Amino acid sequence: MKKITFLLAVAIAFSTISNSYAQDVRRVAFDIRGGLPGVIGLNAEYVTGALDNRLSFFANYNGFATDVRVEGVDESLSYFEIGSNVYLGTKGKGLYGSIGYGNINIDATYYDVSDDGNNYAKATGDFTAGTLNVKAGIKLGGILFFRGEIGYGFGDIPSEVEVTGETSTISDTFLIERPEFPGMSDSGYVIANIGFGIAF
Fold first, then answer.
1. H-run or E-run covering 12
2. One digit per residue, pLDDT tens: the chain, 200 residues?
3. Rounded-to-integer distance, Cα 92 and Cα 75, Å
4. Which of the residues 20, 39, 82, 153 has the least number of beta carbons within 10 Å of its own beta carbon?
5. For residue 127, what are the contacts with CB-CB under 8 A and spacing of at least 6?
């Protein structure tokens, strides 16, 4: 029975592989991307055989650009997203729609801030928000490919950040306005990126 199960598994695997080559479907793809909200990052995608090779799953991590000084604020951003793409074509490339979950985190250091009459040389804090991401994209090429995406992450983005300011004598926690970030509002953020990668 074990031999039959093993042989059946091997036959299915070979069938899947040969089917993917016959249809010129490259199942696994990795790309380096840049844009919003994560500045720069890495993306991995797996194209399944579901829906006639139209459904894929992906995960990406962005945010390697840190300590960006913007109007007296140092910002360090990290961004993680998982979800699925549905291609219009049957070869795991071309136009697609995407839906996923995003998690964005921004650490901020504010300089020369005051609260309740106290002045702080700096105050530090961070915020995290989860979003529902809806995107449209295109993937062009073969082994080497180009990818572009545009969309929006819908969620409740905090308008204020809890920070801690310290002096030589006191330490205090208070609220301060969320740091500015391109394409971000209280209801979400713009997603726009381009990437180049390799597919197998």
1. helix 2-22
2. 444 444 445 444 444 444 444 458 999 999 999 998 878 899 999 999 999 999 999 999 987 555 555 566 777 888 999 999 999 999 999 999 999 999 999 888 888 777 777 777 888 888 899 999 999 999 999 999 999 999 999 999 999 888 888 776 777 888 888 877 889 999 999 999 999 999 99
3. 36
4. 82
5. 105, 106, 158, 161, 162, 178
